[in-house]
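INTERNAL AUDIT FORM
Audit reference: QA-55
Scope: verify that the stored structure record matches its stored sequence.
Auditor: D.O.
Record contents follow.
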Amino acid sequence: MKMVSKPGPGKKRLEAILEGLADVHAEVGWFPSARYPDGTSVAYVAAIQEFGHGPIPPRPFMRPTLTGKASSWKILLDQQVKTLPIGGNMVNVMVVLAATVEGDIAKAITAVKSPPLKQSTIDKRFHSKKGNVSIKPLVDTRLMFDSLTSVVEKKQ
């Protein structure tokens, strides 16, 4: 005798969640509108800081954040999904996740201390601002920190 089981509420819930996730797109980072006063893309500068380029040493903040926080982001996503009612809005779940990722990357930017700035960079900061300057990497104008953002959209 062959037993056929009916799909339970767990299967229906999982199918609804997966269907809802397929329609949601989230991005965290710097978008084309984020530019320095001279027109330079903030995303370009962030990539140079992350990987280094020429005389600029790498000051990674994104890759360590992704590696260090991936498991906590998964736990957050799991918690958000578990509390979502069937037919609930996955956009709201992804907004919470994207905002958390954005915040974690911002914290990482402010935590970078190494390698220290060269004296010539500190001197340029001092002469351009005529006074109080930061000797900390990645915080000269705060534009990279301030323009980091997240966007969550429902796909059409």
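Auditor finding: record pair retrieved intact. The helical segments are 9-22, 42-51, 62-82, 90-111, 119-129, 143-147.
Action required: none
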